[in-house]
Structure prediction request, 529 residues.
Amino acid sequence: MTDVAIKRALLSVSDKTGIVELASRLAKAGVELVSTGGTAKALRDAGLQVLDVSDVTGFPEMMDGRVKTLHPMIHGGLLAVRDDPDHAEAMDTHDIGAIDLVVVNLYPFVNTVMSGADRDTIIENIDIGGPSMVRSAAKNHAYVTIVTDPEDYHGLYDELAGHDGATTLEFRKRMAAKAFAATAAYDSAISSWFAFADQQAMFPDALSIAMQLGSTLRYGENPHQMAALYQPNGPASAGVPQAEQVQGKELSYNNLNDADAALGLVAEFPANTPAIVIVKHANPCGVAQAPTLLEAWQKALACDSVSAFGGIVAANVPLDGATAEAITQIFTEVVIAPGVDDAAREIFAAKKNLRLLLLEDLPDPARPGLEMKTIAGGMLFQSRDNGVIGEADLKVVTKRQPTQQEVTDALFAWKVAKHVKSNAIVYARDNVTAGIGAGQMNRRDSSRIAAVRAAEAAEAAGWDAPMTVGSAVASDAFFPFADGLLSAVEAGATMVIQPGGSMRDEEVIAAADEAGIAMVFTGMRHFKH
Prediction:
């Protein structure tokens, strides 16, 4: 069977956008309209002739509308294989009329949850009859057209106009696939609410994830890989996918990944002090807070101007013209911020390939949630690393007590280290990263690399000594041996912040005491693989 003429349609929608126009067009084409409840009322109010579902089934709607379409007179009309003799005989015997078109969208479950409704109201907004009709029609798409999204009404108009009031199998298959995705997403939202909100489960026995295609991407990490961006069907935290792209080329897979890393780190800094984060290959290569955004940019860039070329820049406050002018002096892939003034917008506009992303709000670094990673044969899930350490959480383990400035520098370095790939070492002084060592197989090498970066920056700037001199150094996990700490001492660090917990903690503490530096333990590590 290919083309199917639309002679009878069942309309039952919660979202009534465009439904009167659709019904009017169908009625004008001689299609019989069958409807329920509020949809039927809306169509009658528009002057259309509508047959109630209760007239079709011979049963009134009952139990506050919970039971109305769950009936053989409805589902027989949806599921019958029209050219099967036994099915045709059953339809004749029981006077079941075929239904050729079903237009259904479901109770607004997610919106009800987000409104703060009580549990009973949420339960009542779990649609039963709607998904049943959708699935019946979608299963029998060889004979029945199912439409679940008002955005597809115009496609249906074009289909009917182009095929003399009928739909093609290709169109019905496409709509059926979308219908099953819609019911799967709906059930996923319900099961997630039961698991996480109602039952307070962190890891339920069964976990379903519903995502909507945001866009296909040119390629993945490499040109031979395909890629796409998917977004949650329900509400999502502020993030790169929710940003407005003001200008520039299409965002790539790597752009999105790096911009997310930059945004995650810059959101750690409150808006009362301007901050700039520069990211390259998902690792920060320069971070600074300063009285002005321009000064923050200059100090962040000075940390590693080589790696900053072709990087991602994130700000925690709206961008101004002076900062935009400075940023555009080097090649930058993406700039993301919670706003931009007219002068900055004009300056960025001259760089046609630069991607400018604007967000109304930065993501909350303390928000709960799950992170996922695919592995061969399964997926790993974990809660987000939203752990925060304050001054009161620090345990001084050395003979020398840190100064207040050293504590401030240490907490700044710690905040950055949380977002650096392990093994991570971060030197910081005066709210500026002095050197960053990322992703090495041992902590000593990360410490040495960070010191080398700082020395190169100092030489390029003509400073007498690198900023690691007099700095605090953060390690995302404990020092298993004293060599990593001694490398930091050689670079000029006077303060160490680390989780502690090694079997050789006493050895490392002794090395710190011998060097005359201060060290604190956080009791929390921040591995980021």
User: Anything to note?
Assistant: The mean pLDDT is 91. The chain has three domains: 4-198, 252-358, 392-521. Residues 252-358 form a domain with the Cytidine Deaminase; domain 2 fold (CATH 3.40.140.20).
